[in-house]
Write a structure and sequence with these properties.
Strand content: 25-35%
Helix content: 25-40%
Distance between the termini: 39 Å
Largest sheet: 10 strands, antiparallel
Number of strands: 43
Radius of gyration: 50 Å
């Protein structure tokens, strides 16, 4: 007996093993995915394997399983007859091939044909698994851990080079300046420095030989220094003793207090000072707040009001940090007196603190930014072991070291709090800036003072330890890594459905193995010829179906309903296979009406999938999908996606992005599969209907139970182009679920909203001339130039912008999100116009008096440079044409060459004045105070150059006079430039962000065609020159670098060290004058926008402010986006499918008028050849039913015969069916 290869035990066992393996694989993959945080590291560029692979594999499995299903369906009627007498509707009339799948499923369950039920359920389960396989794998960022990793520690604590005395210190200004920049302006702290907590830990990273992705976190145990400041308010001190301290000031009154606590006593701590030489900065003032900060030894024998102070680095005694705030009261300034008539402390606040630090072990984690540059960190104390100290730096010395840094740092005068001669100390300026530049009078509140002072002290101390107590190192420790990687995960939802489907499929394979049709037919009954051969000996069945070729299926059913059928093997020789009908006992008396072919209307059996309406839908649906895909793609491209995903974004994403498109794809594929099935069923009958077809192209043509490639090959081989094209279309349709699996992705999207902006201030360049105060603009400029501080709001590079603000509040701004938008604003741009002082106007001389009067160190000689320069102002003062100008420097006496230079603020009169910065803080050596009217017109008011830079290189040359007296000459190369200031406005394209607005991170683009210079009105001049005396800039830089020498001031050092593409060698000499001018201009352009920003804004708008509207793109949405590549692939496939279907329909014209009834059942097929000789011994030799198709061809069965389907005339009677030769054309379009 013949058995289908697809129902063989080894094949079904293979399916069973396959499904069990797939079940285990999906479960194991999911387990590994969850256990190992994903399967593996993947890249979206290699997505095709994991995104399309599972779906493609299951598509192949589905095509193989359909062969099992077909074999079950076609063999089930034969199985029923092999089991005994079987009713016609369960045997010769039973047909599971052509009806819809769900209809067949219901019938098989009713008939208990479990093998067919199982195979159909298998198809549905494979399709279900295929749908969910489109979302089986997902690529997502995953955090991974790795232990026992060697890490390189880059620094260690070491203070052995620390020294501090009243005369010198190894501590510079950097800790104070850096803390100010970090705390007030958001300067990114150094790695390992937490100024808020006062904690410093070493920086470390994986060894350079290791490759780690951006965003890696690495953890190890390292020592860390934690600062502490324990303060108490001394409530008993409400007043102070007035005293005279002539070594500090001859005429000023001082206020001192003795502080006594259970653990520390200190004597004569200065807490207030009257005006020095009756100097009032604010002449009408009657109140002043003064703050003091200092480190003191706990020794009452030390008089801290005396000029000889103890060693501040003394570590044998305890230290205390004392912070005081005094509210002084006094009468207004009286120029007739040597001092105020009275002065007293109205209120006094005193806080005493114990400062220190400790070294402990910390578990530290550094977190690299995903940009590969930024770096954050966290630390947790790891042990309670006894704390230690930094070698060479005692915990007791911390307060004195912090005071040293603060004393050197100059941040400004104190603004409104600078009332008398005493300017505000840097410590209190920092406290004020921390709280929005409030008056220091607010710190009279002891709790407010202690809270803010503790924060500031800890921050400065942390910066100090980092800058001065940490030395480079490169030792290795063991640690762990935590990093983010794009890894391939297995989705639980897909695994659940797929694993359930696979285990059920394994069970269904077992059911088929048990209930399969086995040994039920002598040969493959798939083709017409095979059925004719099998029934060659079944003459009784053929006799029942005589003249039934043109009958309807219902009529054939009525004819055979009175019979039951069974198949028997009749032993030979030869052995034959026979289908034996038996009449039901209860129906023998039934009277049947003979079928009359001449009385029936024309009718044809046409499967719904071949009818015009179905094929029209099947063609239109892909066309609609092509159009829909194109529309969606355009929407997706235009709007970065075509639909928003709301709060249920995950579920929506998986529904719309994977599963629903897969269902649509399966629906289209099913429509084409239905058309293909119908065409495959009708193809051999169509060949017969066309007439005179050989058996190989008709009777033995079986396209139904072939795999897709074989099916297409057979169609082309037999010249059936129409069938071949439809098969190609169906083959392509089977891969639609694979293609749609990568069609949709989720992307972050934005919403466009209108935002109205309004200018809220203007610049008034008369508000501050920058001589005494610039509101820390110089400090900020130094941090920008030296420490990469980001530009403050409304400034960028050399540009200062007016403030704009929103007048409406757009909806949907995500918390913490910054939304960029481009606009055009007018910017103010400062610049210098510099000229070089002619060298022939310079005279160098040795100033012997400065050495004799000890105005310079003994190892130096004084170099005086005198110029006679042309009057440089645009307007003249009298008849002056030239003015003298003096510059002084000190060069080593031993003749060694050095660089020397400084910047100066100029003042034009009968002589030109300007020789380095003018010190205005009376607490510093060489301080001078000036009247407000002198400061207001400092430069001259004639449109003059206001700024100069002198830079030289050279040495002193020792000579002997005739009287054997040592004199000096100089070998120098000096360049001096005089610069005038100009301001211009220029329309600038700038990118801002909402809601912060002012922070500009992208370089603006000025439109130079709109640039114009602003006009300035001075006392004796109206024109383009501005005369800001930039003294505060020079003072701020002078005390801001921590590396000032007597030969180069801080401004010139900045020129040589900031942007070191131009070292100092490239600035010195006649050939490098343009470099000097450019470098000076660059630093000026860094400072001046900050000065304008912080000192020259006013909200007193004289005209209606400008309003304008922008439409930023606000983030916060997640949208579904269509992938272009997948869309194009789908459109191409759908287009080819439609083209093949249309051409196939044209080529297969008439296929809907081929057979009068369903030819898939045994009876339906037999009725079509019962009246002819196809199944008679004339053509079929004995034993032919046992032979395979190849054996039949080799023995020549049906060889040389041509066959046709149609009307045949025999003895005046027309019959419809298959027979030998040509059909009768007399009755084809009339009646049947």
């Amino acid at each position: 007996m013949w058995n289908s290869v697809w129902l063989q035990t080894k094949v079904l066992a293979s399916f069973l093993a396959l499904f069990i393996a797939l079940f285990l694989v999906t479960i194991v993959l999911y387990h590994i995915s969850e256990k190992d945080s994903g399967l593996s590291a993947e890249d979206a560029a290699r997505q095709y394997g994991w995104r399309y692979g599972p779906t493609a594999f299951l598509t192949v499995v589905l095509s193989l399983w359909t062969q099992v299903d077909y074999s079950n369906k076609i063999l089930t009627p034969w199985k029923e007859m092999r089991q005994g007498q079987t009713a016609a509707d369960r045997s010769v009339l039973l047909e599971y091939i052509s009806p819809p799948m769900l209809t067949v499923l219901w019938r098989t369950m009713k008939s208990r044909h479990w093998a067919v039920t199982a195979s159909i359920l298998g198809i549905l389960l494979i399709q279900l698994a295929t749908v969910f396989s489109t979302g089986l794998f997902v690529l997502k960022p995953t955090v991974l851990a790795q232990g026992d990793i060697p890490l390189s520690v880059k620094s260690v604590f070491n203070g052995t080079d620390f020294h501090l005395s009243n005369a010198s210190s190894s501590i510079g200004t950097a800790p104070s300046i850096l803390y100010y920049g970090t705390r007030v302006h958001g300067l990114t702290p150094f790695p390992g420095v937490d100024t808020a907590q006062g904690l410093v830990v070493p920086d470390f990273a994986p060894l350079s030989s290791m490759t780690t992705p951006s965003g890696t976190n690495y953890t190890t145990n390292v020592p860390g220094a934690e600062v502490s400041l324990d303060c108490e308010y001394i409530s008993g001190l409400t007043n102070a003793t007035t005293t005279s301290l002539p070594w500090w000031s001859i005429l000023a009154d001082f206020f001192v207090v003795n502080i006594t606590t259970p653990s520390c006593n200190m004597s004569n701590i200065i807490v207030g000072e009257g005006p020095d030489h009756n100097i009032y900065h604010q002449e009408n003032a009657t109140q002043a707040y003064q703050g003091y900060f200092g480190d003191y030894l706990c020794d009452p024998s030390i008089d801290y009001s005396f000029y000889e102070l103890p060693d501040p680095s003394n570590a044998t005694l305890e230290h205390r940090v004392v912070m005081t705030m005094a509210d002084l009261r006094f009468p207004p300034y009286d120029p007739r007196t040597a001092g105020p008539g009275y002065i007293y402390i109205h209120e006094l606040t005193v806080a005493v603190c114990k400062a220190g630090y400790s070294i402990n072990d910390y578990d530290v984690t550094y977190m690299d930014g995903t940009d590969g540059q930024s770096k954050s960190w966290i630390a947790n104390k790891a042990s309670t072991s006894p704390p230690s100290e930094i070698p060479g730096f005692s915990s007791a010395q911390l307060g004195a070291a912090v005071q040293s840094s603060l004393d050197q740092a100059y941040l400004g005068t104190g603004g409104r709090d600078w009332v008398l001669s005493e300017q505000v100390p840097s410590f209190y300026l920092i406290l004020s800036a921390m709280n929005g530049n409030i008056s220091i009078g607010n710190f009279m509140d002891p709790r407010y003072l202690i809270g803010n002072a503790t924060e500031a002290f800890n921050g400065v101390a942390a910066e100090l330890i980092y800058k001065h107590m940490m030395k480079p190192s490169n030792h290795t420790v063991s640690g762990s890594l935590l990093y983010q990687q794009d890894r391939l995960w297995v989705r639980g939802l897909s695994v659940g459905f797929m694993a359930a489907s696979f285990i059920l499929l394994a069970g269904l394979s077992s059911i088929i193995l048990i209930f399969r049709p086995w040994n039920v037919v002598p040969s493959d009954p798939g083709s017409i010829g095979a059925t004719a051969l099998i029934l060659a000996e079944s003459s009784e069945l053929r006799d029942l179906l005589l003249r039934m070729g043109a009958a309807r299926s219902r009529q054939i059913g009525q004819k055979l309903s009175a019979y039951s059928f069974r198949s028997v093997i009749k032993p030979g020789p030869p052995t034959t296979f026979i289908v034996v009908p038996s009449e039901h006992g209860g129906l023998t008396g039934r009277q049947e009406t003979p079928y009359d072919t001449s009385s029936q209307s024309e009718h044809w059996w046409v499967p719904s999938s071949v009818q015009w309406w179905f094929q029209s839908i099947a063609i239109m649906v892909p066309l609609v999908l092509i159009a829909v895909l194109e529309v969606i793609q355009r929407l997706s491209d235009q709007h970065n996606g075509f639909v928003d995903l709301g709060s249920n974004g995950f579920a929506t994403t998986h529904a719309f992005a994977t599963y629903i498109p897969a269902v649509v794809a399966f629906s289209v594929a099913s429509m084409f599969a239905s058309m293909q099935l119908a065409i495959c069923i009708l193809a051999p009958w169509l060949a017969l209907h066309r007439g005179s077809a050989p058996a190989s192209r008709s009777l033995f043509l079986n396209l139904t139970n072939r795999l897709a490639p074989h099916r297409v090959f057979l169609a082309f081989k037999n010249g059936n182009l129409g069938e071949a094209l439809l098969m190609i279309a169906t083959f392509l349709a089977a891969w639609l679920p694979v293609l749609v699996s990568g069609l949709y992705i989720t992307v972050a999207a934005t919403t466009s909203q209108s935002v109205t902006l309004s200018q809220s201030d203007v610049f008034d360049f008369k508000l501050n001339n920058l001589f005494y105060e610039d509101n820390l603009a110089g400090t900020v400029a130094g941090l920008i130039a030296f420490d990469d501080l980001a530009y403050p709001s409304w400034t960028y590079g050399d540009l200062a912008f007016n403030t704009i603000e929103m007048t409406n509040n757009p909806q949907g701004i995500m918390s913490g999100a910054e939304v960029p938008f481009a606009t055009k604003l007018q910017a103010t741009r400062p610049s210098l116009n510099c000229s070089v002082v002619p060298r022939n106007s310079m005279i160098t001389t040795w100033d012997e008096k400065q050495t004799a009067q000890k105005e310079i160190p003994d190892d130096k000689v004084a170099l005086n440079i005198t110029y006679v320069v042309p009057w440089g102002c645009e307007n003249h003062m009298g008849n002056i044409t030239h003015v003298p100008w003096f510059q002084g420097f000190a060069l080593p006496k031993d003749g060694s060459p050095i660089y020397f230079g400084h910047a100066s603020v100029l003042s034009w009169d009968e002589k030109l004045t300007g020789n380095r910065a003018i010190i205005t803080d009376v607490n510093r050596p060489g301080a001078v105070s000036y009247a407000p009217e002198a400061v207001a017109n400092w430069v001259g008011g004639y449109g003059c150059p206001s700024f100069s830079v002198t830079l030289g290189r050279g040495s002193a040359v020792r000579k002997m006079s005739k009287k054997n007296h040592t004199t000096f000459d100089f070998d120098v190369d000096v360049t001096s430039i005089l610069c005038s200031q100009r301001l211009e406005v220029v329309d600038t394209n700038v990118t801002l962000t909402l809601p912060s607005l002012g922070v500009i991170s992208t370089p603006p683009a000025p439109d130079e065609s709109t640039a114009r210079y602003l006009m300035n009105k001075l006392s004796n001049y109206t024109g383009q020159i501005f005369e800001f005396p930039l003294n505060t800039l020079l003072l701020t830089l002078a005390y801001g670098t921590g590396n000032v020498t007597n030969q180069l001031d801080a401004f010139v050092q900045f020129l040589a060290t900031v942007n070191t593409s131009r070292p100092i060698d490239a600035l010195v000499g006649e050939d490098n004058t343009q470099n000097l001018i450019d470098s000076t201009n660059r630093l000026y352009k860094t400072y001046m926008p900050q000065a304008i920003d912080r000192n020259m804004r006013t909200t007193n708008l004289s005209i209606e402010p400008a309003h304008f509207t922008v439409r930023p793109e606000f983030p916060g949405r997640v949208r579904l986006k269509q992938e272009m590549a997948s869309k194009i692939a789908l459109q191409v496939v759908l287009g080819v499918m439609v083209l093949c279907a249309v051409v196939s329909r044209v080529l297969l014209k008439g296929i809907d008028k081929v057979v009068p009834h369903n030819p898939c059942s045994i009876a339906g097929r037999t009725a079509l050849f019962a009246d002819g000789e196809v199944s008679t011994r004339k053509l079929v030799p004995y034993g032919a039913e046992w032979r395979t198709e190849n054996e039949l061809q080799s023995t020549g069965v049906y060889e040389g015969w041509l066959f046709s389907l149609g009307w045949w005339e025999s003895w005046g009677v027309y019959k419809y069916g298959v027979d030998i030769g040509w059909i009768e054309r007399g009755k084809t379009d009339n009646q049947m």
